[in-house]
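Aim 2, interim progress. The first record below pairs a target sequence with its structure tokens.
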Amino acid sequence: MRQIDLSEITRAVKELSIEANTIANCDLRDALKYSVKKEVSPVGKAILNQLLKNQDIAKSTKLPICQDTGFTVVFLEIGMDVSFTGGTVQEAVDQGVREGYTEGFLRKSIIRDPLTSPVNTKDNTPSIVHIDLVPGDNVQITLMPKGGGSENMSRIKMMKPSDGVSGVRDFILETVSLAGGNPCPPIIVGVGVGGTFDYVAYLAKKSLLRKIGERNIDPEIALLEKKWLENVNKLGIGPGGLGGKITALDLFVEVFPRHIATFPVAVNIQCNAARVKTRII
């Protein structure tokens, strides 16, 4: 059994909080560069080039890629041969967020008690932590700052089983169409299908952890991802919502078994910043 002091989790989360908000991943930059070549709209091309320039400035100056530094969502894969010392996992993650957002001069956006006392917590905590137990003695930490603009455009629907695959496609297109330019396109579309009302939303969000171009391991679902991405880009929303071919950089689908009487579908939209960083302890 491997023992890990939770101060290691705190330190990693602190560093990931700053990195995720200031340094764009290579897969995102490559997708934006490729999109510049594909985009036919001069305005769209200019927006895509500006996004790349913005990422360069953010990295060199250690300033946020976007002023909305998000609700900090953390996915932990914890090996079953790991034991922790020094507190609780939630406390360790929150402390890392607290230190990272303070020392990194990142905007604090979390409001405590939204119904009774909507006051800013002033340190971007609490974070949302998802935990999976996996074989081994390592801990994988994946941090996603999720901005409010894209999150606002996300939707869930308890469909009828008879709606079928075409119903899922139509719901995705309706959601992206209603979102328009609000989530700062080009977007990434995360889709969850199956499970329960709460779990399908988790599936949609977790799908956004994939690298751009990383297809579902099921070849039939992978084909649907490609087809639905094409459908989304035919909507013509384009970069910045000002028209063009590149509305979305990618579309991911995650599925889970469902009840015979239900057909849950969730669409979680990610903005062009698509901030995700991972570390293994």
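The second target in this work package is listed in the same format:
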Amino acid sequence: MPTVVVIGSANLDLIVAVERLPREGETVLGGDLLLADGGKGANQAVAALRAGAEVKFLANLGRDSFGDRICRDLVAARLPADGLLRDESAPTGVALIVVDRQGRNQIAVAPGSNQFLLPGMIDENATFLAPGAVMLLQLEIPVATVERSLQFAKARGMTTILNPAPAGDLPERLLRHVDVLTPNETEAETLTGIAVSDPNSAEAAAKALLTRGPRAVIVTLGAQGALLCAESIVRYLSALPVEVVDTTAAGDAFSGALAAALAARKQLGALWDDETLVDAARFANAAGALATTKRGAQESLPTRDEILGLLRRFEKSR
């Protein structure tokens, strides 16, 4: 089975559904409070697992009740306990999420123990992390740890994927270790200064990012789909028709499924080529769409069979 190595954050999400998102300084009354496991790292690890990959996930959790719950749930989901480190000095990360009737969200995160997942922990856990076909990372842990993880992966022949979320500036030396970069519109604009609102502007931003080191860039465009750009290809993938309930974790579903698809192709001996990238991006695009049809983060992540089923229905309807 293809192995995806994920290094990143794990949080407990506190979610409130509201009629509309609040404006600055405004209080909006909502529905019941939902507590759910989250964090971009954990979400993407579970997404890759459900999409068909074997997954190793390294995270740093507080030794508190939130950390206990997350550990229990991730192990129950079939992620190995060896990668779930516990921190005696910091609380588990927490995300505050507000979701409106259209599925749009606002998120604020208290990183807690995630910010103490330090570069030295990568080498300390080298035996657990290797071997692997693909390494997947995000930016809810220190950038220095992301950079060390990418170096670790490239030295061992892994394909590397970086989901640059939350948005922030990145050093050029880090991007040179990235095979596939998966920003959304906001993240692509932050990294390039190019306002991204449609496939044309996404292409311009993606081409600018390619000059900084990644071998491929996939800009996710929400309801507009995604734009894949590599040295020899530009391919627009339209959004698949689904009924949107909650966009939380749609990007995580995309990145996790992309990692699973690339790992599967790599295990079969597929070369790095346009066909491999397009097939993986289509699979990821379907996973991202399906994640918007359910509330919550990890609860919304689709299985491999669900992803393939949506792709088949989409092809039949064209």
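Residues 306 and 312 are 10 Å apart (CA to CA). This observation will shape the mutagenesis plan for the next reporting period.
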